[in-house]
Amino acid sequence: MSHLVTSFDVASLAGVSQSAVSRSFTPGASISSQTREKVMQAANKLGYQPNAHARSLITGRSRIIGLVVSYLDNLFYPAVLEQLSKRLQLDGFHVLLFVNDHVNSDDMVREILQYKVDGIVLGATTLSSRLAKQCSDAQIPVVLFNRIMAKTHASMGSVRSDNRQGGYEIAKHFLNLKRKKIAYIAGRIDSSTNLDREQGFITGLAENGLQIFATATGNYSYEKATKATYALFNKKRDRPDAVFVASDQMALAVMDTLRHHLKLKVPQDVCVAGFDNVPQASWPAYQLTTYAQPISAMVEATVQLLQNQLLGSATLQDRNVLIPGHLIIRQSSDMRAQLQLHSPTITTCYNPTQH
Amino acid sequence: MSHLVTSFDVASLAGVSQSAVSRSFTPGASISSQTREKVMQAANKLGYQPNAHARSLITGRSRIIGLVVSYLDNLFYPAVLEQLSKRLQLDGFHVLLFVNDHVNSDDMVREILQYKVDGIVLGATTLSSRLAKQCSDAQIPVVLFNRIMAKTHASMGSVRSDNRQGGYEIAKHFLNLKRKKIAYIAGRIDSSTNLDREQGFITGLAENGLQIFATATGNYSYEKATKATYALFNKKRDRPDAVFVASDQMALAVMDTLRHHLKLKVPQDVCVAGFDNVPQASWPAYQLTTYAQPISAMVEATVQLLQNQLLGSATLQDRNVLIPGHLIIRQSSDMRAQLQLHSPTITTCYNPTQH
DNA sequence: TTGAAAGCGCTAACAG
DNA sequence: CTGTTAGCGCTTTCAA
Fold first, then answer.
1. Nearest-CA residue to the C1' of D12?
2. Residue A135: its pLDDT value, please?
3. CA distance B203 to chain A (A)
């Protein structure tokens, strides 16, 4: 194993000091272009790249953001991951990934803390409040992505789409379609996203004197949603005529089960609506009505929040960001909706009379 | 901003030396349980966690693995990412994510090098040979995940499933079904996975005196695959009666287009087969015949390869691992196949068949 | 088993 | 603009 190339080596070869090398690699540092040129030539010759860890020791910044997720099969989160990582790279930050299996969570937090990350994004996971607090206590900015917590702590913010509004609009949409027996399939019942979506949905129905006709829990998983669908629809009487499913991932399972196992027609027998607007929702096999979460806006807000907190310039009001989404009506609820070619995150063509 | 807690602080509070603190946090270091106890108490009181960057400076190991991907919408890679990250965490490594947009690749490589990662996994990306070589030259173990390179360099290995065999078995499967006009929809035409799958497919057909009837390119994307399907099937005569699609992601697009836009029946009019066995392939809406890539075996091999190269104990023969996959026959090609409930990616046991 | 001391590779403060 | 110096937080000899 050959000696690792250091700034000392480069300095020697270039005939300058280590400081000159350091400055050459620091944008905006005061250094003459000739010196820099000499340094860069030597650096290239030796294949030198500054050591980010050594740098972080001095600067107190690692330029690493810890991202905690617990699963990536939900179709929505891979897109978030990709966009967040790309966006952070633009600012010279990088994502260190932590997959939370909910069993070694304590170890995981310990490891995050060891890497002295400049910030933490908690997405698609339910890290306990205790652990989230631990991170927050360590002076690290924490952003809850698409979830909120009962007790928010110092240096903790949240970004989410307007889940209540989404549930509300879908309720109104079903009512426009004259549906009366309207069911709800929940995600993780204790998650804030689920609660908000359900609350908005209930509110929308209540404004027209309706209540949720039946409920089941799908836990944000395809398999569980399949079972939930059986529970709600595998009978002749008192079958719902519309169902709002708390995520697209589950809604696809619902459509599959209704059509292929229970031989029901969507939307004629049952209207289905989901939440997220994952790419699959617009595929011809599904054409799923859904409330779109604007990923890039959410990512942007996340990055802003992290950077504000790094600079300590976030007021308390700014700490909880709510991004508006929008309803996309497709054929899983309304036959009149145009069959669309696959067009990710484009707004609806067909816009019915809203409530 | 409060002072960052260091081993010095802990040492002071515990009334021991910094070395003692260090040893307390080093498994297997020679330290008495009483001293350790004192240290741990002080550490807990102060919320101390050792600084991984400072440690890496001494040990020369960052315990970070760089993972380079260019997109995560291909359904197969999120699963890889999740499993790889989980597996590495088991050994105390972590994944630093780099999303390659193919425009700032040079900067990206520079950044990878700055983090002094202990290894690099190149998955779902086509980092140029030049850049891959640059990483390899920096003495960093590189594993090509699901791709190979014309010229392999020192400290570079590869892991892939048996793409040729997969193509071969799908050809044989179509021939069993008495199909004669057999088409191929390619992924990225310059990718090694695509070439291998195509080669195996051609070989299988050739053994029965057949050639590929028609070809189009889908570039591993849903949209391009849709267009490719039109190109091959949007006509009355000389329409293929079977099509092998180089990835499931594209195959789902093909099925959607055949059924919903071209009004053709799958499998009666056209048999479809894909590659990967993503979760969606087993969903009732598709029931896609496919060649399963055993993700966990591939991940395990990747980790082994990285660690072997870290220890410098890899012989040249071990450097290129080929993992066998297996054909899964579903209703997109054969009506007689049983309708399956969704069964997520089952993997074969790890069997390091080398060549 | 323990502590003192040296130094990993780098940047920042200070002179010049 | 440039070099010298100190030290970031840690591990690792080396003595004791």
1. B58
2. 85
3. 33
Distance, in Å, from the CA atom of B279 to the CA atom of A284, rounded to the nearest integer, reads: 18
Average pLDDT along chain A, 355 residues, taken 10 residues at a time = 84 96 94 96 96 97 96 91 96 96 90 96 82 84 89 82 98 97 96 96 97 97 97 93 98 98 97 97 97 97 92 70 97 83 38 34
Which ranges constitute the DSSP H helices of B27-128? 33-46, 52-59, 77-90, 105-114
Domains of chain B: 7-50 (no CATH), 64-161+295-323 (3.40.50.2300), 163-288+330-354 (3.40.50.2300)
Identity of the amino acid at A248: D
Cβ atoms < 10 Å from Cβ of B58: 8
- Residue B225: name the closest of B197, B198, B245 by CA: B245
CA distance B92 to A14: 39
A283 interaction partners in chain B (CB closer than 8 Å): 222, 252-253, 256
Neighbours of A297 (CB within 10 A): 15
Q: Which residues pair with B40 in a beta bridge?
A: none
The SS3 of residue A76 is: coil
pLDDT per residue as tens digits for the range A290-348: 999 999 999 999 999 999 888 776 565 678 999 999 999 999 999 988 755 444 433 33
Contacts of A78 in chain B (CB under 8 A): 72-73, 77-78, 81
Q: State the count of interchain CB pairs (< 8 A) between A and B.
A: 175
Mean pLDDT for all residues in chain B: 91
Contacts of B237 (CB under 8 A, 6+ apart): none
CA B121 – CA B136 distance, rounded (Å): 11
- Residues 6 or more apart in contact with residue B164 via CB below 8 angstroms: B196, B197, B199, B200, B203
**Dist CA B289 CA B217 (whole Å):** 20
Question: Which residues, given as ranges, of chain B have pLDDT below 70?
Answer: 1-2, 152, 313-317, 339-355
